[in-house]
Design brief:
74% helix; globular
Length: 196
């Protein structure tokens, strides 16, 4: 049971309308209305609007969850990771802290190594940034660092307040897929508009 009660439904409603799935973590955020909606919006953007490949993104989220001991994130994102093509064994190894995993790409392994370093050191050395730039490019390097920071932040809230887990990974995965498709259509539309 959560260490503080969730806000009542009326107080949570404005926040939950920003989330494609009404999760307890976002219900808890409704206690801080000034930051709740932007926090949810950033999470939705990180899951659906970045250029990071979905499997790499989920591997990184699982790695963060393992590094900071956040069972909520691990339980929610394990099944999502499998929907992006990770095997259960790969997902478990990622959460357990393994960097070199059979079947993952070099870019995914570079991202996992950077995740470990950033969570541990709160910075990246020059060699790691160089490896990220070479493997992912500058845009995805920045998106990756933002992704790691976001899930560390959420983990702090989830762990400190013992937010109750609800089984919603299938709903989240479906919602993210739909949002990603909408984002791709929007980007494609804007690209065509720019070309004309």
């Amino acid at each position: 049971m959560a260490r503080i009660p969730y806000p009542d439904e009326r107080s949570s409603q404005a926040v939950l309308t920003h989330s494609p799935v009404p999760l307890n973590v976002f219900r808890m955020l409704a206690h801080a209305p000034a930051v709740a909606e932007p926090t949810v919006d950033l999470g939705v953007a990180l899951l659906s609007a970045t250029s990071l490949p979905a499997r790499l993104r989920e591997a990184v989220i699982l790695s963060v969850a393992g590094r900071v001991g956040c069972l909520y994130e691990q339980l929610q994102h394990g099944p999502i990771a499998q929907r992006t093509g990770m095997t259960p064994e790969q997902a478990a190894a990622t959460a357990d802290g393994t960097v070199h995993i059979d079947g993952l790409t070099e870019a995914e392994e570079v991202a996992l190594a950077a995740t470990h370093e950033l969570v541990r050191e709160h910075t990246l050395d020059y060699a790691t940034v160089s490896a990220l730039r070479q493997a992912l490019g500058e845009r995805q390097t920045v998106e990756l660092i933002m992704l790691i920071g976001y899930y560390v932040m959420l983990a702090n809230l989830l762990n400190a307040l013992e937010v109750d887990f609800e089984s919603a990974s299938e709903e989240i995965a479906s919602a993210v897929a739909e949002l990603s498709e909408e984002q791709q259509e929007t980007l494609s539309h804007h690209s065509r508009g720019d070309a004309s």
